[in-house]
Amino acid sequence: MTTTPDGADRPIESPDAGSQGPHDAAIDEIAVNTATRRQVRKEQWRVLYRSPGFIIGSAIMTLWIVSSFFPELLANFDPKISVTGPEGQTLTRMPPDSTLWFGTDRLGRDVYSRVIYGSRPIMIAAPAATIIAAVIGTLLGLLSGYFKGWVDELVSRLLEAILSIPAILLAIVIVFTFGATNPVIIGAIAFLFIPPIARTVRAATLAESQLDYVTAARMRGERSLFIIGREIFPNVTGVVVVEVTVRLGYAIFTLATLAFLGLSGGDVTDPNWGVDVAQNYQQIVAQVWWPTVFPALAIGTLVIGVNLIADSIERATKS
Q: Domain containing 54: what range?
């Protein structure tokens, strides 16, 4: 309380009470917008977890993940050893029945066991290549979209040069040049997917860099790398997740294609979906369809599962 010249007591008022400066109001508005964006992201994830497509896709992915890491729990026979009958004869080209669920191939190997074990090469190589591409592509996209100018020009021209070459042709050239080994195949596929991921993240970064929270961070004197990593990147993670799931499906197809062409990175007797299709597809004309159809269906179901997850994530982020 304070006494005025006329003798009345009045409460002391703070100089800032009841009013805010323009700078304080702007900071409060940015804080509210940031909280709103976080709440929106939480709601998007709730929508995603309830999506039928996401649930079905996750179930398919879980099945193949279990098959790739614990195949002995699901397989009936050794995938590289021919199945023999009660008299010791090799059971070649046996159709599916209650014992041989997917039949046997031309060498008498159990097709079902080869399908189960054949998931391992793809479930290791495809995610590895996709993650490498996502890390490098996201970094390039963030730097290009934030700094713009000559950085954007340089990165964009390099990406366009890579995209101008057909993807599978470029992969074949890389594998033939450096050798058909697993690290080379993973690196080749990662190299193919860096440009599309980088371009998508760049577009998202350009949009985010114009918003108020980035301007406020610059006004606070934050460094560029801090703004990119702590301010912009959390707001483009949805885009990155969608790109990763989409590219994972393409990586599975690319790996299967290379394996079909004889560039599997392993022994030809090892179970591999693409190799098995290549070794048996000519027998379809002789009505021996099962050694080809079941590995092909395995590739298809895995890609469908990945695409269901990707579509669900994309719809959730746009809701």
A: 34-318
Beta bridge partners of 222: none
Give the pTM.
Answer: 0.82
Q: With respect to residue 5, please indicate whether it lies within any of the assigned structural domains.
A: no
| Domain membership flag for residue 142 | yes
Helices (H) and strands (E) in the chain, counts: 11, 2
- Any domain includes 259: yes
- Which of 120, 121, 85 has the alpha carbon at shortest distance from 100? 85
Contact 299, 253 (CB under 8 A): yes
CATH of the domain at 44: 1.10.3720.10
In total, the chain counts a number of residues equal to: 319
Give the total number of structural domains in the chain: 1
pLDDT in tens, the chain (319 residues): 545 455 555 554 444 444 455 555 545 555 555 556 666 667 767 778 888 889 999 999 999 999 999 998 898 888 989 888 888 788 889 899 888 899 999 899 999 999 999 999 999 999 999 999 999 999 999 999 998 889 889 999 999 999 998 888 999 999 989 988 999 999 999 999 999 999 999 999 998 888 888 888 888 888 888 888 888 898 888 889 989 999 999 999 999 999 999 888 778 888 999 999 999 998 988 889 999 999 999 999 999 999 999 888 888 877 6
